[in-house]
């Protein structure tokens, strides 16, 4: 890990007002890929939502999350962590996107993340619809092998096809990832599933593959502590990715998303669950499905930026104990 004195630091809001300057994630400096030497964590925007099947707008998520992340302060009192002191972090800008063609876009994103992971940088991404997680996983799996994953989501995203046989949509990424061998289904934990399904056997394929699903009623009946203890046991000490779909939150807290489902988590419950992942072998994470057009006031993006900071702290602590 680089010397702490060389770590990038966010602009301080008691010197430069939060509304001033160029918007970057956590007010960190933005650097280009050619300059990522000695970087531990790269925060990347993926302004792409061509996998959306109904309400678009998540392509605008990274920009608004950047803006609202100016409200994040340096120190996390519950975790007793200042991530910028223990890991070198920067905003790597936005990944290349093609809003017109899905497969070429996924290929370009995979190449982009190959470059990031080749340098040993842990990617922390902001989408974008949930399909953007697939190319990130592809790049990470090339380096680390099949991954475990903890997914906070109202939906399993294990559907096979949409419409006339389309295999790439925001409801299919983890089925493709399991089929491609980049996710180990026995180390895939899905937390917060709820809402209507297309048929009674929609979740059967995932269960048959060994996916561990915790519908939200199970979480509330068993308790967050018990479910998160199970999640930790399931992923174990192996390399693990965390994906946080903002629709795991109740629409009262996050109305700006493409597929809202009532009866979700509060923001505090989500923070508590993320903090319980402390100490896991995390190699990357993302926050997806923030759609500003459905929440012009920005409360959803603020929730997204807050969860991003929680994940940044976890990754920073992991990186401080040895690069992922």
What does this molecule look like?
Helix content is 32%, strand content 16%. With 324 residues, the protein is of the alpha/beta class. It has one domain: Arginase, Chain A, CATH 3.40.800.10. Helix 9 links the parallel strand 7 and strand 8. The radius of gyration is 18 Å and the shape is globular.
What would you say about this model in short?
With 324 residues, this protein is an alpha/beta fold.
**Percentage of residues in helical conformation:** 25-40%
Q: What strand order characterises the main sheet?
A: 2-1-3-8-7-4-5-6
CATH topology value: Arginase, Chain A
* Unreliable stretches: none
Give the overall shape, derived from the CA principal axes: globular
| Class by SSE composition | alpha/beta
Number of strands: 8
Termini gap: 11 Å
Main sheet attributes: strand count, strand direction, barrel closure = 8 strands, parallel
According to CATH, the homologous superfamily is: Ureohydrolase domain
Please describe the topology of this protein.
Blueprint: E1 41-46, H1 61-68, H2 83-86, E2 89-94, H3 102-118, E3 122-127, H4 133-144, E4 147-152, H5 173-179, E5 183-193, H6 204-209, E6 212-215, H7 216-222, H8 224-235, E7 240-245, H9 267-275, E8 282-288, H10 299-320
Parallel strand pairs: 1-2, 1-3, 3-8, 4-5, 4-7, 5-6, 7-8
């Amino acid at each position: 890990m680089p010397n702490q004195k060389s770590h990038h630091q966010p602009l301080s809001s008691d010197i430069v007002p939060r509304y001033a300057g160029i918007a970057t994630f956590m007010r960190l400096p933005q650097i280009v890929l050619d300059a990522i030497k000695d970087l531990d964590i790269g925060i990347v925007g993926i302004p792409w939502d061509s996998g959306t099947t109904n309400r678009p707008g998540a392509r605008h998520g990274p920009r608004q999350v950047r803006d609202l992340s100016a409200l994040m302060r340096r120190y996390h009192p519950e975790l007793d962590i200042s991530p910028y002191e223990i890991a070198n972090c920067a905003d790597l800008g936005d990944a290349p996107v093609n809003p017109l063609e899905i497969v070429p876009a996924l290929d370009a994103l995979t190449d982009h993340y190959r470059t990031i992971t080749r340098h040993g940088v842990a990617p922390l991404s902001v989408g974008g619809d949930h399909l953007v997680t697939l190319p990130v996983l592809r790049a990470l799996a090339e380096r680390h092998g099949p991954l475990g994953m903890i997914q906070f989501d109202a939906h399993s995203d294990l559907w096979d096809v949409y419409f006339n046989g389309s295999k790439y949509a925001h409801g299919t990424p983890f089925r493709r990832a399991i089929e491609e061998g980049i996710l180990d289904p026995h180390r895939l934990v899905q937390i917060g599933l709820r809402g209507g399904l297309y048929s009674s056997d929609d979740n059967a394929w995932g269960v048959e593959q060994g996916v561990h699903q915790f519908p939200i009623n199970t979480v509330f009946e068993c308790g967050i502590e018990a479910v998160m203890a199970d999640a930790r046991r399931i992923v174990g000490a192996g390399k693990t990715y965390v994906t946080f779909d903002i629709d795991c939150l109740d629409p009262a807290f996050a109305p700006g998303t493409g597929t809202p489902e009532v009866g979700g988590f509060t923001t505090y419950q989500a923070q508590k669950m993320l903090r319980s992942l402390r100490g896991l072998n995390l190699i990357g994470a993302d926050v997806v499905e923030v759609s500003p057009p459905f929440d012009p006031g920005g409360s959803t993006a603020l929730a997204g930026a807050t969860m991003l900071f929680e994940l940044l702290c976890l990754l920073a602590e992991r990186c401080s104990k040895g690069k992922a």
